[in-house]
Amino acid sequence: MDSARQSRQEPFPAQVVSWVVAAALVVGVSLTRLSSYLLFHGLAEVFSVVVACSIFVLFWNARQFVKNGAFLFLGIGFLFVGLLDLLHTLSYRGMPLFREDANPATQLWVAARLVEAGTFLAAALAVRRVPGAVATWFVFAATTGLLVASIFWWRVFPACWVDGVGLTPFKVASEYGICLVFLAAAALFWRRRSDFDSGVIRLLLASIAATIAAELAFTLYHGVEDLANMAGHLLKIVALYLIYKAMIEVGLRRPFDLVFRYQRLAQELAETELAKVKDQLVRQTRLATIGQIAASIAHDVRNPLAAMRFLAQALREQMPAERPDWREYLDQIDAEIESTNRIVGNLMEMAHAKDVQKQPVDLAGLLGDVSRQLGLRDWIHWNVELDPAGLIVSADPTQLRLVLGNLAANAAQAMGGRGEIRVRARREHAADVIDVEDDGPGVPSNLRDDIFEPLVTSKPKGTGLGLAICRQILERHGGSLELCDTNGRGARFRIRLPAEQSPEEVHAGND
Asked: Are 437 and 491 in contact (CB under 8 A)?
């Protein structure tokens, strides 16, 4: 029942038919005046009562779905407007149930219009909040009961009609005051027009305009059956028809259109979520399979690696002075051993995801360890910028070292061993952000969406595990890893970690 600015507009032929029916209704009721003004008045007021009660029945039964407080106020308020109009109809001069005095009918008319104006004003004030339906009902019931009692029981309601004189000053002043309240409601509705369907707000404002015109007409008549009185009732029929269009047709029919639209949207969203769950399941299955394989081979691979490292160190110590070229070969052996060891480490991480043991980590020191472990040559420039210089992050140092080592090693390999690796770290609000950027060719466009999936790699000899493990580690930290756009200039990976506030920051925030 709440607003929907994008709801489907009524087809043009249907609009024509609805307005032809409205015109026929007005003309038909007007013609009854030729037979009897009492008949004309009764039909006009019965139409008002039926529309008012219909609005109440609809919105009272749908109150749990109403998200716009204006509709709830209008729905409940119109019940009591309809009841007062019914009493006005029954007490009208010529009806057999009341005395011939025209004052009670006129007093009830003013009372109904006061409640109606108050309903519109309250509705305009409650557009973005939904009041309690039962409490609102009791407020309207009490107000209506007091008004009726003041007319028929206590007889303290000011006189509105005096036979031989006509309308009293109170009645005329009341009509002008009611018009001002309706104008205020219209202004508030216009300010909140974005909360309504465009068709609804137009109809509401048009109904208010017709009601104001009717009230002004009721300040001009000198007899209860003259033309000004008749014009006021016809304008009231128009105003109620516009309310019908706004709240019954638009408020009832179009939401059903929206229900089916929302169902189709929900189905699409469900299919999207299902696809995401399926992709996640495939990813987890793939990771589990890799982990099982890793667990079976990692131990057997690491033992030979340790032996190779020992032998390479022994050769370095016994290297003949006349063979300096051996040093380059031994450096290459060390680099390959480190690369293989890193792959094994990735496999072990995939097989046995460790719990995160967060602690304060000196990022500058950790990056220094990464640089030394990678054994970066002079032709790879390692550029680190921290803001602040002594940035402390909250992380598991072993796992964060693995992440940064993987990203730096990937950058070095992508650049072919020559270029600059730039590490920029800073604190942004509640997160520590670390960018690792290189001068390589960047990530191919066909791999950008899947680069963090296991076994996806752009390197001929890559395993496609490093980035998947990095993301997995950072997600366990409550952080993230993303590939940033660099406009084709290298690759930039961004790490985000939840920041732990220092005591100074906590104190500053409290201040």
From this structure: yes
Convert the pLDDT of each residue in 32-48 to its tens digit: 877 788 888 889 899 88
Considering the domain architecture, whether residues 74 and 202 belong to the same structural domain is answered as yes
Instruction: Give yes or no for a contact between 95 and 151, defined as CB atoms under 8 angstroms apart.
Output: no
Q: Which range marks the domain in which residue 327 is found?
A: 274-337
Domain count, the chain: 3
Residue 225's alpha-carbon distances to 93, 96, 231, 372, 444, in angstroms, are 10, 17, 10, 103, 85
Q: DSSP class of residue 2?
A: -
Sign of CA dihedral 336, 339, 342, 348: negative
| pTM tops 0.70, yes or no | no
Can the peptide bond before residue 388 be classed as cis, meaning omega within 30 degrees of 0? yes
Which residue has 């009041």 as its token pair? 131
pLDDT tens, position by position, 186-229:
999 999 988 888 888 899 999 999 999 999 998 888 776 778 88
158, 168 in Cβ contact below 8 A? yes
Length of the chain in residues, anyone? 511
Number of helices followed by number of strands (H, E) in the chain:
14, 9
Quickly tell me which residue has 């006129």 as its tokens.
106
- Same domain as 239, residue 142: yes
Whole-angstrom Cα Rg for the chain: 40
